[in-house]
């Protein structure tokens, strides 16, 4: 399967919101209604299917650490995977079995990878306050690891999209103080060109 | 409760702000009527949120009238007229207070213990006066709070676990007396709000708790990384603050989903959404020592 992010034309770091927007505009573009009666109807349908699959895959990946659909394209760490068994169980969706192994790991074996996997399992259970601590510790212990960093960035991106739709709907960004001042100044200089003046001192 | 659940005022429409204030004043008045003048001093924004949610769920549109009150004798203010949701909230506030004080009496030492012992009879009086059939049961609240205190005594290292225990208290308080979908929505809103309030409070108390050697969920989970020294003061570490703020916003998604299910058309719903999407995240940022509101 092709990388779902490139299908939607967004970067891996895109926020959930950006992805949703990209998905909507593509879905609108390739909507069957637009191609009704055209010879390209079949091709558009295929494209639409591809877009839907890509969107679903990203949703699945973002909602739970790494999900089944995501597994085929997420880069796995090339380094040591001492928790190979745990990763396998997670990919099969056997979270409680994975948790058993994780929780019975002796404390001196609890390195970066252990913290990362523990965090992923907690995300799966919706325990975000705990999960993020373990993921942060994993990043702290192994700052160069792209997998851990990715998990952290994913949580950041998700948190940043919270409430964003609410503010944009209300058009909060349209009118800030700076905007008003610059508009006034512009208007003033325009008027001065024609001999008038709004702000007399400048 | 503590006043973390309030609107982000700059994003409210003027009419919404007026209505919010009217509900606030109406609740204060209702508390005076049902649970006595003393109880009015215990009013906090969290309870206004409870009242607003109960009104929205029961499709009650508050009726406002201009009145004077003791706190502001000079100017008449718009106040929501008494309704079942306000009466319920007044009773719920009294029950929460009395259970909180009874715990403080057994846990705290010195001045605080004295204060809670002195306050308890007042609180009991409020509960008695409120004692209508649709008020929440103080015993049930006490039982649910006890589960939280047990976890705290056992030094639980899971923030989610302790926060959820407090969430369960508010899930009960928000949903008691409702049925069907309304009860489910109220429960979800209460639980998420409770979790949120618990974490905000933990962030606010962190330095104090560390100094006094008391249990604090953030300190217990993050250990040495929980706090750092800044200008000679103990504050939450920037790492923990960033992480807790991130987790809080993801956790609030559940509250957002529940808030979207409130009946449309009720004038309180936009205020509730403002609280949920903007007010609460910015209150959390404040507790975490971050200035300004992100996401706006």
Task: Give an overview of the whole structure.
The complex is a heterodimer of chains A (202) and B (296). Chain A has 202 residues and is an all-alpha fold. Chain A contains 10 helices and no strands. Chain A is elongated and about 65 Å long. The C terminus of chain B is likely disordered. Chain B is 66% helix and 5% strand. By secondary structure, chain B is mostly helical. Chain B contains 10 helices and 4 strands. In chain B, strand 3 and strand 4 form a beta hairpin. The chains are: A mainly alpha (202), B mainly alpha (296).
Features:
heterodimer; A: 202 residues; mainly alpha; elongated; B: 296 residues; two-stranded antiparallel ribbon; globular; disordered C terminus
Mean of residue pLDDT values of chain B: 88
β-strand amount of chain B: 5-15%
Q: pLDDT average of chain A, as an integer?
A: 77
Tell me the fraction of residues in β-strands of chain A, as a range: under 5%
- Contiguous low-pLDDT stretches of chain A (5 residues minimum) are 66-80, 171-179
Name the helix and strand elements of chain B from N-terminus to C-terminus, one letter apiece: HHEEHHHHHHEEHH
């Amino acid at each position: 399967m092709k990388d779902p992010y490139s299908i939607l034309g967004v970067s891996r770091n895109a926020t959930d919101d950006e992805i949703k927007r990209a998905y909507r505009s593509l879905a609108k573009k390739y909507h069957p209604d637009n191609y009704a009666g055209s010879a390209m109807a079949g091709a558009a349908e295929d494209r639409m299917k591809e877009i839907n699959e890509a969107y679903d895959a990203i949703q699945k990946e973002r909602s739970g650490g790494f999900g089944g659909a995501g597994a085929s394209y997420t880069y796995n760490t090339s380094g040591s995977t001492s928790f190979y068994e745990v990763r396998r169980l997670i990919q099969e969706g056997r979270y409680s079995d994975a948790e058993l192994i994780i929780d019975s790991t002796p404390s001196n074996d609890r390195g970066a990878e252990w913290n990362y996997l523990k965090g992923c399992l907690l995300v799966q259970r919706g325990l975000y306050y705990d999960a993020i601590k373990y993921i942060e510790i994993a990043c702290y212990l192994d700052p160069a690891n792209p997998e851990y960093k990715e998990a952290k960035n994913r949580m950041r991106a998700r948190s940043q999209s919270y409430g964003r739709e609410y503010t944009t709907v209300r058009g909060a960004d349209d009118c800030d103080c700076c905007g008003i001042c610059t508009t006034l100044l512009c208007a003033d200089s325009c008027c001065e060109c024609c001999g008038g003046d709004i702000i007399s001192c400048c | 409760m503590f006043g973390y659940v309030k609107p982000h005022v700059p994003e409210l429409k003027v009419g919404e702000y007026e209505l919010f204030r009217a509900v606030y004043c109406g609740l204060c008045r209702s508390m005076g009527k049902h649970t006595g003048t003393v109880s009015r001093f215990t009013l906090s924004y969290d309870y206004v949120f409870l009242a607003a949610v109960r009104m929205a769920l029961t499709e009650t549109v508050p009726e406002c009238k201009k009145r004077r009150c003791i706190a502001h004798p000079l100017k008449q203010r718009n106040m929501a007229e008494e309704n079942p949701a306000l009466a319920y909230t007044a009773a719920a506030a009294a029950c929460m207070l009395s259970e909180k004080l009874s715990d403080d009496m057994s846990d705290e030492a010195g001045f605080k213990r004295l204060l809670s012992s002195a306050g308890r009879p007042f609180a009991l009086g409020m509960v008695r006066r409120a004692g209508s059939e649709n008020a929440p049961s103080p015993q049930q609240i006490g039982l649910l709070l006890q589960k939280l205190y047990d976890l705290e005594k056992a030094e639980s290292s899971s923030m989610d676990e302790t926060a959820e225990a407090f969430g369960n208290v508010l899930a009960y308080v928000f949903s008691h007396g409702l049925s069907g979908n309304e009860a489910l929505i109220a429960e979800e809103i209460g639980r998420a709000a409770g979790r949120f309030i618990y974490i905000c409070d933990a962030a606010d108390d962190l330095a104090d708790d560390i100094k006094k050697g008391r249990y604090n969920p953030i300190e217990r989970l993050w250990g040495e990384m929980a706090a750092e020294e800044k200008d000679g003061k103990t504050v939450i570490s920037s790492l923990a603050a960033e992480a807790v703020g991130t987790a809080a916003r993801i956790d609030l998604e559940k509250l957002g989903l529940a808030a979207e299910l409130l009946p449309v058309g009720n004038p309180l719903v936009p205020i509730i959404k403002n609280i949920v999407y903007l007010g609460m995240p910015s209150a959390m940022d404040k507790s975490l020592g971050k200035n300004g509101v992100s996401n706006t």
